[in-house]
Amino acid sequence: MTTEVDVRAALARLGIDEPVRADLAGLRTVHRAWSSTVPYENIDIQLGRPVSLAPDELIDKLITRRRGGFCYELNAMLALVLRALGFSVMVVEAAVDREIRGESAWRNHMPLLVDLAGERWIADVGLMDGFLLPVPLRPGVHRQSRFSYEVRHLGDDLWQFRHHPNSAFTSFDLRCAPLEVADFVEACAWRVDSPDSMFVQTLLAGRTEVDRTAVLRARTLTHAGPAVPYGQHRRVLDSMDDLADVLANEFLIPLDGIDVAGLWDNACRQHETWLADAARS
Questions:
Q1: Residue 134 counted as domain residue
Q2: Segment 183-204 mean pLDDT
Q3: Annotated catalytic, 211?
Q4: Interaxial angle between packed helices 24-37 and 71-84, expressed in degrees from 0 to 180 and rounded to the nearest 10
Q5: What are the transmembrane regions (predicted)?
Q6: Is-catalytic flag, 164?
């Protein structure tokens, strides 16, 4: 049975109160609203809760309960919404920081490609501090306000996206062969459950605005971008109340049913581990 997406509810979740057409203007409207409204976050993983890529579970979590998620959840839900609006959407595999991690990085990320009027666009709301607007899959530098991103064609169906300075990662490579969300269930499960997963090891949240990104790692909140003095600013959260305020107001995460005390305990433990590792290096 195919799960139906309530388009009106989905657009309301994004703060969009007008009809959206399946054209470039519509794609830009949805992508921008999603990137600035629906947070990247791994709270369920941190609290030991299950994560599902099933459409009904995604709709309940991201639309009905107004939560965020991590890359597989966010882009799987975006694909559902875009298809319900009439867009042609392809799920593809990517490898974040393949330059550093090598071939084992494939399927550590799941971006989308959208075909419109003879041109292909990268749609991706699962990058923690990603881009506000879709990026054309075309070699060159692509500017969005004062942020600049680069796309490189590496040959055949292999492409590379390069992020802006002071971002959470350097690049990701992608292959244009079409896949399904189901092809990423195993990769997602490992990142949810394995003690070696960065998502298990560290509380994470992220959101993008015009010329400014916000990223939380354990207790460290980082703002970066042209709108931030000197390009980047960091501070360490000093209390559970501070964490709750940042989650609710910086990352727009509803705290109903969230064990903030448990998250704070995790973040403190993770911060101490980071300090110990930094002292040894």
A1: no
A2: 98
A3: no
A4: 150
A5: none
A6: no
Give me the CATH number covering residue 226: 3.30.2140.10
- Catalytic member of 6, 23, 56, 71: 71
- List of E strands, the chain: 40-41, 88-91, 94-96, 112-116, 119-123, 135-136, 140-144, 147-155, 158-162, 171-175, 204-209, 212-217, 220-224, 232-236
**Distance (Å, rounded) from C-alpha 13 to C-alpha 218?**
27
Q: Are 215 and 206 in contact (CB under 8 A)?
A: yes
- The per-residue pLDDT for 1 is 46
**Is residue 124 annotated as a catalytic residue, yes or no?**
yes
- Say if 106 falls within a structural domain: no
Encoded tokens for 23? 């054209």
Q: Point out the catalytic residue in the list 6, 31, 60, 109.
A: 109
Residue 142's φ and ψ, nearest 5 degrees, are -120, 120
**If we measure between CA atoms, which residue out of 165, 131, 137, 167 comes closest to residue 152?**
137
Predicted TM-score (pTM) of this structure? 0.96
Number of domains the chain is built from: 1
Residue 237 belongs to some domain of the structure: yes
